[in-house]
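hi!! sorry for the late reply, been swamped w classes. u asked for the two structures so here they r. pasted raw, havent cleaned anything up. first the sequence of the first protein and right below it the tokens
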Amino acid sequence: MKLLVANNAAPFVRGGAELLADRLVAELRLAGHEAELFRMPLGNSPEQILESIVAASLTELVNVDRVIGLKFPAYLVPHDDVVIYLVHQFRQAYEEPPVGWPADPRLDPVVAAVRAADSAAFDAATRMYAISPFVAERLRRTNSVEAQVLMTPPHTDHEFRTADAEGFIVALGRLSASKRQLDAVRAMRHARPGYRLVVAGQPETPQVLEDIEREVVEGALEDRVQVIPRFISEVEKLDLLARCSGSVYLPIDEDSYGYVCYEAAMASKPSITGTDSGGTTTLVKHRETGLVTATDPHSLAAAFDEIALRPSEAAHMGVKARRLALDLDLSWSRVISELTR
């Protein structure tokens, strides 16, 4: 088949959806299909959002057997065979602040246009899939649309290993306000002595890094918090996961199950996540495979203490975490089979 994977595009922004789109194209090609990536620009202002809807609706595709649409407005592109593999809706038009737009009569026509365009696209789709149970439930709640859950493995393949815990908790991933590494650092002011926090990842903005570094200095945490403000290699990541006591991942309302949590689980390490972190609870079951906690500094500090200072219990949760990750039976072959049937 000639397949077009359709994703949106924001200049110089690269995250999970972009990694998914790239890997999906690669896996489709490995399966013998002709596959290309199509990126539909998406602006920030309400006017640009409306323009994106119009642009998508006027796009004419030729020589394409099927479109696999990932995100708004790319899945609005007209075609007789559109399979939507939903990463998430345009959440600004569906949710309350801070994720959604604030109440403003000037935004009402844009919200209405987004929802109308979505409804038409979902009704016309050949099939609907969602990348996680959390995304499927949100779609059911907001659009009354049923989607089959089709989860992917992480977008890179690793040989995970585990080792004895060496007295630190690791916070991996892009340093971002929405991932709340700053809250993890703040919690270390209240944590008991005897372990460290290692924060490692590329800063999304200079301000994010400045805020974290300021907290380290003001909290006199130089001996307890290590910040590695850069992209870390796969070798470094696997080493940190193998040697840590556990992983902390605190996204706000995560769409997927959280690749950070999956990778920690595959290294037989428990994860700490937030009660408001969304899809991460697919893998993080409280006091079974990790801890689910409020994200205020005192609650986080108590969770850190429990993981870092009770190594046998943490190790037991890590074993269960790996078992749960394996039980998900995530495979690209199943994803490709579903999307191309």
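now the second protein. again sequence first, tokens right under
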Amino acid sequence: MSQEALSSDSSLASESAPLLTDFLGALRSSFFSFLAKPIDELIANEGRDYTRAAERHLERLKTAFPGKPLPNAAVEAYTRFNQEILREELEFKKTGRYAMDEATLAEVCEKVYDNAEVMEAYYLEGLYLTYYFWPHHYELVQYYTAQFVDQFPGGETLTEWGVGHGFLSLLFLEKWKDMKVSAYDISRHSIAYSEQMFTSAGISNATFHLADILEQPCPKTDALICGELLEHVPDPNLLLQRAAAALAPEGRMFMTAAINAAQEDHVTLFRSDTEVLDLMREEGFEVESSLTITHPNRVEEEAPPQVVACVLKHAHPENIH
């Protein structure tokens, strides 16, 4: 759908989605104008519900960071984030390895998580924007909402490891407003960014921890979110062991893992969703539900980039003390 079509459609008129309209206009004017096509397709296929959600997604940024003018700052971050992924994917196709697959966590922190030129310039905001502008991430959001947020049995505490931009916790709190939140991240840039997002959303019942969850036990929690995390750690087994210890006996955990998906801070390469789900079962979890999503333009490839998302609970809660 062209920008003219977007503006002329009464249900998607610019006055009802001005931020989205401006974002698309700026994106089409950039060197990476091809990135507008998937968004146009989402608008055409999903209609008003998608447009409203994408507009709210951009409104969160505008409210949280008024000093970053929309749409240009957002387009710059989004295109740079995509550019870096394309570069990593080209190398992955040549070598079959992630560039940082033998790196320590300290080395990844030096290159990415402690690097303001990465985190503040494009990483956090670019990743945040993908949730409504990459079709497979939008599908992930729908699964997360339907299977984790809406089906959550209830509780008092929510914890997110690797909070990053804060989007997943914020979406959870739209329904479960009164839960006490603990957010952890190894990057001070992520903590500052997500804390600003929470503050601008009026959420005051959250504490933020600059900490490596692999090096310390965390308090028990009723809901645990680990999105975009498992492939970022050198020892995914240890992460799952820590999660099993932190999750309350009747609690639920949402976790994703990238498969054959190169990115500058991915260190653990998973080759299939079966490998990921088997690993979770080995560490004492029951997979309550799961969804494997393939990049829509890469379906015909032999080993396409994918993401597997799942809702987990303890396989034997009666043994948890």
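hope this helps!! also noticed smth abt the second:
The two ends are 55 Å apart (CA to CA).
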